[in-house]
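Researcher: Please translate sequence to structure tokens.
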Amino acid sequence: MAAEATYRRPEIRKDAIHNRWIIFSPARARRPSDFKSNSDLNPNSNNRSECPFCVGHEHECAPEIFRVPPDSTSDWQIRVMQNLYPALNRELNFPNCPSESGQCSGDVAVIGFGFHDVVIESPVHTVHLADLSPAQVGDVFLAYKTRIDQLRTLDSIKYVQVFKNHGSSAGASMSHSHSQIMALPVVPSAVSSRIESMKEFFEQTGKCSLCQVRTDHLLIDESTHFLSIVPFAATFPFEIWAIPRYHSSHFHELDSDKAVDLGGLLKLMFVKMSSQLNNPPFNFMIHTAPLQINPSQLPSTHWFLQIVPKLSGVGGFEMGTGCYINPVFPEDAAKVLREVSVPNNG
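Model: Translation complete:
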């Protein structure tokens, strides 16, 4: 593999989902199996006795929205609450955007209305998502679903983004494991571009691009309802997508059985990534359809979860062109992750 990675010709691949080009330049990297994170996950790790996300410190947080189980007191497992330092203000009165799709044309400034919530994934400070059982990870997904169901009753909310920052270099300001939910009154341009690109694929082929996604040499693992791959035109080294094997446009359509199934696959991906890449900082994002999407676009729109380990930075070329340089071919990354041995301990 060393010779293959060193002397393999560079390629430029089209990411058909996001409608962008990716440059694969293996000469800029070591062997794929040599990639390791060397950044400190939490150099400013919070003291457990002072962490507001821990049990007993609930009063130090912003208002709680709900908890799991709902009738628990000190024995809660998951808490969903307002962000103490929100990027958007839920109290503001948002005027209707000129476009029903949530996209405003021209130079437009609208009031900073929206929702910014935090999901505390465990009451235990040292427990991370990868430490939870598949059912417990599934419960976190169901907490996302519950909150999205609440938010989508509001006509002013057009898109909901679920994401997790793990490690300070990935954007996490708290070491206690948590994720975030932001509900926006507009549809972000990257989302619109993705939806339009998937629509174009459907119009050309009559098929959903993710139902037809390539798995040859790109598959890492699969479960009953989901598969995990390194995408054909991965933007980042060792990027992973978890994709429903059934057609579904919206993440909030997830049911309990599928949530547990996804929880098991995601836990496996975290364990493999941690083992092979030295427990790297990472981000994950759930890419779903806009809440008020045109029904004609549902056959072409398919939600998925993206995991991006922080192994490389973004430079001026990427920022200037929107064309990313990835030093690891997806087939090589998938092979390395596929072959990671994981103890079968649930």
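Researcher: Any highlights?
Model: Confidence is low (pLDDT under 50) at residues 1-6.
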